[in-house]
Design goal:
The structure is a homodimer. Chain A is α/β, with parallel strands linked by helices. The longest helix of chain A is centred in the C-terminal third of the chain and has 28 residues. In chain A, helix 2 links the parallel strand 1 and strand 2. Chain A contains eight helices and eight strands; from the N terminus they run H-E-H-E-H-E-E-H-H-H-E-E-H-E-E-H.
């Protein structure tokens, strides 16, 4: 993944690496818009290439579009599902555009998969809360929900701007981060030698929290990364959070630097 | 299972039958109160014996008590869980005493199992609807919910009485059924030679429905049984339903009888 999202060549390499072990990659899970945690969006060119690769290798795509309506200006890009109905499961949710507490989302799936999903859902939970579903349905049919989405887009954009400004002002050289065009998250890369998981206790002591990058990798890597969420706090708190985090990063660098120097 | 519920000797036989195949029975799932679908309640004497058998064989008990508060007069019997905390998972729900649409229930579980359940729940659904949980919590803390349970007990008792009276009046000889002391269900056994699954289409055509007994057996048996629910329709409709069902049973007997006679 880079600034344009999933790297098509890396997808091919991953499929071939699985095949080399005698197994078959069955599906690709991906968040094309405003990725959680990376904050990047798959470019239109790469969307086509990912679809082609998936079709060529018989790979089902699970397209998780939880944040798709929460863009900060640009036109929405075409969903992978819009390009290839049969090979894409499209997931979304009302958790980000209405309220998370209802736990209601939806799936557009090819028929053969849909039947299996219904069976799996029945076996696991019988059915989701009808009350929560009714609340969402009534909200959508009686309230100006697109206006509310517009409010969310403006609010989250202000918070993103506050975070990006504060990062640019306060973070030490060697730190880098993504510039999300929507959604909730900035993905930050620490200067070499720092470990976001080791740093977390100090951050929490300074009353600023994040998710260490290792939580998003299956192979134990990701220690130089961390996910920052700007969705909940207002801009002033976002700025204050980045200020505290920058102190924690500076402290960690001060501890790491002499060690590096002795090598 | 008979009128007193789970037969302890049958439980021992089942544990030994599994052991004879080289496997180990891991848990017993049981509904001690107002059983779904059988409508029977485990006697106090048998509760002790089931607990002893489970302890002796290291068998975890999953005690599903969805209907425990919906008894028709008698004092509630002690939960299996009350007799042996460590070996019993106790499940219940607000679906039968508040409203089914909230999909909120609870589990009392030994600590070691509880941690696994939390992980399994997080992996499957992240968390249940907070909104639905809040609705239930507010209902319980602000409304006279035990009075409402008393209303349900009276209402369901009237419907059960209507069903039992109608069955006694209308069902042909050779038919038998359980007498539930609570809950929602009567378990009916058809005269020999009848098959509740074959009979279902005719019943639905007569606008009366039930669940064929085969749905409650893992081994394909149960064809002579059917589950009748009296919880939803008022007494007059319950009586009318039994009247229609009795016609369907009489018809099925008329078809089956000559075949039987030619054997």
């Amino acid at each position: 993944m880079d600034g344009e999202g999933l790297i098509p060549e890396a997808l091919v390499a991953a499929i071939e690496a699985v095949a080399a072990t005698g197994r078959v990659a069955k599906f690709l899970y991906t968040v094309p818009n405003y990725h959680n945690p990376a904050g990047v969006t798959l470019s239109i060119d790469r969307r086509e290439r990912v679809l082609d690769i998936a079709e060529r290798h018989g790979l089902l795509i699970v397209e998780d579009d939880a944040y798709g309506l929460l863009g900060f200006g640009e036109e929405p890009r075409p969903a992978l599902r819009s390009g290839r109905r049969d090979g894409v499961l499209y997931l979304s949710t009302f958790s980000k555009t209405f309220a998370p507490g209802f736990r209601v989302g939806w799936i557009l799936a090819p028929r053969v998969v849909r039947e299996k999903l219904v069976l799996a859902s029945e076996a696991q939970i019988l059915c989701p809360s009808m009350y929560a579903q009714a609340a969402v349905a009534i909200y959508l049919s009686t309230m100006p929900w697109l206006d509310q989405v517009s409010v969310f887009r403006r609010v989250y954009r202000e918070r993103r701007d506050a975070m990006l400004d504060a990062l640019a002002t306060l973070m030490p050289p060697g730190t880098s981060w993504t510039t999300p065009a929507g959604g909730f998250y900035v993905w930050l890369t620490l200067p070499e030698g720092l470990d976001s998981k080791q740093m977390l206790a100090g951050a929490v002591a300074a009353q600023v929290a994040y998710v260490p990058g290792t939580g998003f990798f299956a192979d134990g890597s990701g220690a130089r990364h961390l996910r920052l969420a700007y969705c909940l706090p207002p801009p002033d708190q976002v700025r204050e959070g980045v200020r505290r985090l920058s102190l924690v990063v500076h402290d960690a660098m001060a501890v790491a630097a002499p060690l590096g120097a002795t090598v």
